[in-house]
Specification:
- By secondary structure, the protein is of the alpha/beta class.
- The chain is 43% helix and 17% strand.
- Helix 3 (61-68) links the parallel strand 2 (50-56) and strand 3 (73-76).
- The longest helix has 18 residues, at 26-43.
């Protein structure tokens, strides 16, 4: 069984996309982020055998349930730092019978579906799959076995995340494959890049049109 997950935060002003908020304002930045989450939920609602929208904080369950609809299991993230929360997510999926698990964040709304499909395919042959970002992190992590340890002692939200994670994989003797590089939207230049990308995509996809309209309202 394949399980696909998205990690997301509630779109409260001043608590999400703080670097974007520095130039756009906290209300606009939070609204853009809400569209990131809704776009990903819509795009991947048929992905894999099961789908989990894993959110924080716990008291925002109703908002995420409304956004997710019937195609997703809505589940709060565990307490702890990002590494602890991701470890808990993978553990839970494997305990529930998943054989391959892929997790993405919610900062890359246009991550190609082909990259996610490749991740599941590669996990038939390797322990871990990683999708690197331009800034030294990763937009996707997948596993086909217990990954306890690969998220330990990582300097999250720094350019060292990718390098440290690969080093941990080596220490634990886990095989891994790498997907094509993609990008997170954290800065104004990233949002402008996203706008330009969306402008070139076919306009028959509702998710793209709504996201582009939201970006154009704030730029």
């Amino acid at each position: 069984m394949d399980c696909f997950g998205i990690f997301a935060k509630y779109w409260e002003p001043s608590r999400v996309k703080t670097r974007l908020a520095a130039t756009l304002g906290s209300e606009s930045a939070s609204e853009i982020y809400r569209h990131f989450v809704s776009t990903l939920v819509e795009r991947f609602r048929r992905c894999a055998d099961s789908r989990v929208l894993c959110f924080t904080p716990e008291e925002r369950a109703a908002a995420f349930g409304k956004l997710a609809g019937a195609d997703w299991v809505v589940k709060p993230q565990s307490p702890g730092d990002l590494g602890t929360r991701m470890t808990s997510f993978f553990d839970s999926c494997f305990q529930n019978g998943a054989e391959r698990v892929v997790l993405i964040g919610s900062d890359s709304p246009t991550i190609p579906a082909a990259h996610v499909e490749s991740a599941f395919r590669l996990l038939h042959e390797t322990d871990v799959v990683l999708g690197p970002t331009d800034d030294g992190g990763y937009y996707l992590v997948g596993a086909s076995r217990d990954v306890a340890g690969i998220f330990a002692e990582i300097d999250w939200s720094t350019p060292r995340v990718w390098q440290q994670t690969v080093a941990r994989l080596g220490e634990l003797r886990l095989s891994y494959e790498t997907l094509p590089q993609w990008y997170d939207v954290d800065e104004l230049t990233d949002l402008e890049r996203l706008r330009d990308e969306l402008s070139l995509l076919p306009n028959d996809e509702p998710a793209w049109g709504e996201l582009l309209a939201a970006i154009n309202r704030v730029l």
